[in-house]
Request: fold
Amino acid sequence: MASFGHILVCLAVFTHITGSLAFLEGLYCGLDNCYEILGVDRDSSKTEITKAYRKMARTWHPDMQKSQEKKEEATLMFQKIANAYEILRDEEQRNDYDYMLDHPDEYLANYYRYYRRRYAPKVDVRIVIGVTITIVSAIQYWGAWNNYNTALQYLSKEPKYRIQAMDIARKEGLLNTGKKKDRRSKEEIRNEEDAIVRKVIEEKMDIRGGYRRPKITDILWVQLVFSPYYLVMYIHWWLRWIWKFWIKREEYGDEEKLYIIRKFMKHGSTAWDTVSEDDKDNYLHLELWKKEKFLVWKQKQEDDMKAKLAENARYKSYRRYMKKGGPGQMTFGPE
Reply:
């Protein structure tokens, strides 16, 4: 009987310790039970919890107390009541709190759930991603238009493009070439010419590559939305290439030849768009889609570039500078 009594005592002590472990300082309601603070139980509905909170809040509101001592006591109690209500009215926090009550020994898991819920962003991640993509797309589109306008402004002042644009404008009667005296100031005439030149360059001349007009299809949002379509088209293109040129051994067309040349030159689509049609025709004439001919052509281009640099006075000066030690050399005045 003595040994059985000791067992009962140990079980009682263990039960008391286990129950106390369910409440951790700094978590949820601390060492108090959130349900007991509001006078409800774990089976209470959200409506019942709200009613209990309002009733206790009226009772323990600091403004309802007369003495300073009672107000201080009520303030602490009111804070506990509000904290318990915030935890139990939120379904996810309440589930985490119930889990802690049922698994008091899982300290790390309980701490993790509490702080994850407390400091995790309240906004839906999908909304954050959507807003971020929208902002990036807007900046991207604005930047493209800004670059385009800057390029037009530069081209309208570049003599080569300005002369071509003025010739087109005269042929189409956009400029005032009559003999009647123009009474406007030189500045007004100049501004009108600039506007006409800009319009001609934009609408009548071949501007591609980095100078081309921005398209709505280039922004990130559209690219993401149509990415499945682009993927299907890319797979279809590759399957067609394999079938026509690897299996059936057909001859390359001009489009395929230019594609191979572009890959050899390591040009992106934007850089390739800046290549003139005359240059592309010349590449086809030289049969640069054949790797051996492309390598010979590339070596000749590099040799010509080296020869031009060798004759360049500034490059000669730079080579002498590098031979003397480059940026790390010590100098005591001009040579």
In short: The two ends are 110 Å apart (CA to CA).
